[in-house]
Amino acid sequence: MIGKSELIAELAQSDRGIRCSPEQRSAFLSKIAQLEERNPTPSPAKATELLDGDWELQYTTSSGLLGINNVPALRLGTIYQCIRVEAGQVYNIAEIEGLPFFEGLVSVSAKFEIETAAESPHQDSRRLNVYFERSILGLQRWVNYENPAQFIPLVQSGKRFPAIDTSIQGRKGWVDLTYLDQDLRINRGNEGSIFVLTRA
Questions:
Q1: How many Å apart are CA 175 and CA 195, to the nearest integer?
Q2: Cβ contacts of residue 48 below 8 Å, gap of 6+?
Q3: Measured between alpha carbons, how far is 36 from 15 in angstroms, rounded to an integer?
Q4: What is the CA 19 to chain-centroid distance, rounded?
Q5: Residue 111 sits in a domain of what CATH number?
Q6: What distance in Å separates the CA atoms of residue 155 and residue 165, rounded to the nearest whole number?
């Protein structure tokens, strides 16, 4: 049975899933499922001290995210998911590498809440309902982006940016937290995608 460190090392070789054959993807999904069966945190959606903080994406099956890498002259850089439990907010930030001075940024912010026991299909509390609010797309220098810690307070303040800065209210989804410990989190989203993240 695969261990956590071994799985993370194997996933790292796939470049977040970009360089991944169908056979490798199938093997990864099997190993991820093995680890999910050994989730050490009951009711992970309520484990706020573990959930809170900045996380870095190591692997995903999301075609929406991986598709960014297919745009000519662009390449996916580091992808973060930053959770602020006290505020009930999540910030997805994808750094886009390109020509010098043309590095890009895709950011989506949303509110989240723990699904109640009456609503949840699971006996334990693992589902977060997500309500999307805002999307920001542009060059990093347009929005004075340095890193998530510097950027998120600007978004929280309501600052408007000289970028494609649009409201996406009305969109919603959910994620199930299927594995959570001090430094690893696995999510399964409502569109069937899997996300494996390590603490940044």
A1: 10
A2: 85
A3: 21
A4: 19
A5: 2.40.128.280
A6: 11
Q: How long is the chain?
A: 200
How many helices (H) and strands (E) the chain has is answered by: 5, 9
Domain count, the chain: 1
Q: What average pLDDT does this structure show over 120-140?
A: 88
- Beta partners for residue 76, in sequence order: 96
Boundaries of domain holding 81:
4-199
Longest dimension (CA), the chain: 52
Q: Provide the terminal-to-terminal Cα distance of the chain, rounded to the nearest Å.
A: 26
The CA-atom distances, in angstroms, between 60 and each of 7, 32, 83 are: 13, 11, 18
Tell me: the pLDDT tens digits for 6-43? 999 999 999 999 999 999 999 999 999 999 999 999 99
Instruction: Give the Cα separation of 112 and 90 in Å (integer).
Output: 7
Which one-letter amino acid corresponds to residue 158? G
Instruction: Indicate yes or no: pTM above 0.90.
Output: yes
Q: What is the DSSP letter of 16?
A: B
Q: Which residue type, as a one-letter code, is found at position 24?
A: Q
Give me the residues paired with residue 127 across strands.
176
